[in-house]
Amino acid sequence: MTHQNRTRSSELYEEALQHIVGGVNSPSRSFKAVGGGAPVFMKRAQGAYFWDVDGNQYVDYLAAYGPIITGHAHPHVTEAITRAAQNGTLYGAPTELEIQLARMLKEAIPSMDKVRFVNSGTEAVMTTIRVARAYTKRNKIIKFAGCYHGHSDLVLVAAGSGPSTLGIPDSAGIPASIAQEVITVPFNDLDSLKLALERWGDDIAAVMVEPIVGNFGMVMPAEGFLEGLCEMTRANGSLVIYDEVISAFRFHYGSTQTFRAFPNQAAIEPDLTALGKVIGGGLPIGAYGGRKHVMEQVAPLGPAYQAGTMAGNPASISAGIACLEVLQGEGVYPRMEELAIRLTAGIEEGAKRYGVPLTINRISGAFSTHFCDHPVTNYEEAQDTDTEAFAAFFRHMLDQGFYLAPSKYEAWFLTTEHTETDIDRTIEAAHESFRRMTK
Ligand code: PLP
What we know:
The chain is of the alpha/beta class. The chain is about 35% helix and about 15% strand.
């Protein structure tokens, strides 16, 4: 089995540290959570593979934290981007393309009567909160521990000491006065949500949730959780916001709101939805939308201001349309799911053979590996896992040419471009990694 030479990556990291804070443009790309050292500097990607600056090849399970669901440089997406570039990349005036993508989103996500495009998931989420506040004329939001909603001030706030305690900032630079507008409760815990609503009810503009969690591993809502959440929130006169930046178009063509695991679809529709990642086909994008009467709060129709120089740019929109067109293909999602079933079964078998405690949460073609011997249904359980075992596994996989996200909380994503051969090679490498971890 290979031991890679990554000399050039190390050199570039040293250089990057001189110019770019921490050497990376997003902290999740650093290897801090898996023992530190130089991250791998990539040079090229095609399909399910990466090649780094030292010439090493990797099978990619990161998919750029989700967006690259059709693999890298997919010909249909590439052609759409090329065409857009040739026609001018930014107009600052509306285009027909924006209408086309908005239609596609609305058809797939029935709770979205009206859509607005922005540039990132962070922006989309941030604006849903503003719109909910404008609509309800209330200020506070409730969110769930461990759900990540981008890096705007309000949602970078962690739990207080109990379910109805006000938040404390999760990052320096966030005033306590802002953190006080956020209440964090445990995911999958309706009793805590009820307590928080009882205590702060009149002030709550919205309850914000990742309806299927992708940020402390993949975690499904317990049966009845989303129904209960929607019911209680609405009874309180607050809005429900679904952050579907990861979940939309990841598990099937649509969002959690129509995912087949939930028979009672109408009851789990939110008032506002935030989108990003997959809907841009690998270019920067975000979108938010919801019921007409709520969305009419947004300028130029209403008093809630939101704007963007780059919003709806033809390249991102074209890439998004092309990506969704690929995902509309026959059998695309079942195939990713089949591969994920095969892969997780193989990994589980390896963990068992070498006696490594492992819980896998798989949803369709995405899954997370938690090094523990208990189920993972909320953030506390996801934290209570073996960080060092994950780091060792990550490094052994990397060494053999398999690129996972460098954090125990991140998911593995299948793409339309992974093959059975990739999967079988990954299983072999996972067995070898477990062997090395236990020898
Ligand atoms: N919401 C969720 C659920 C996310 O996973 C992310 C990013 O990972 C965001 C929002 C923020 O999106 P972006 O990184 O595009 O700003």
